[in-house]
Design goal:
- With 115 residues, the protein is mainly beta.
- Strands 2, 4, 5, 6, 9, 10 and 11 form a seven-stranded mixed β-sheet that branches. A four-stranded antiparallel β-sheet has the order 1-3-8-7, with no helix packed on it.
- β9 and β10 form a beta hairpin.
- The termini are far apart.
Length: 115
């Protein structure tokens, strides 16, 4: 099983990024997927989820209206479009595959730095 994130980097406040996560090695259609982020010294925070049952999405309060999660199963890719970045969005961003709301697989993370 592999989840490989990309698209992170250094961006100015107010800027945008699109993170990608390519997944392979498991029956991806059976799993919901999500993006998490973590800063040193803090717990990992779930920011966006897309559910296998109906494709619905949910977002953390701090990112609503600025983040958009989507997935393309034909390309085995999960996306996170981020707009209006602030310094508080600086974190290591992880994608994850979930089943029954439990994370089964993690990616290795991609760093987003807003400065």
């Amino acid at each position: 099983v592999q989840l490989v994130e990309s698209g992170g980097g250094l961006v100015q406040p107010g800027g945008s990024l699109r993170l990608s996560c390519v997944y392979s090695g498991y029956t991806y259609s059976a799993y919901s997927m999500g993006w998490f982020r973590q800063v040193p010294g803090k717990e990992r925070e779930g920011v966006a989820f897309i559910y296998m049952s109906d494709g619905s999405t949910t977002y953390g309060d701090s990112v609503k209206g600025r983040f958009t999660i989507s997935r393309d199963n034909a390309r085995s890719t999960l996306y996170l479009q981020i707009h209006s970045l602030t310094s508080e969005d600086t974190a290591l961003y992880y994608c994850a595959a979930l089943f029954n709301f439990a994370v089964y697989y993690w990616g290795q993370g991609t760093q987003v730095t807003v400065s």
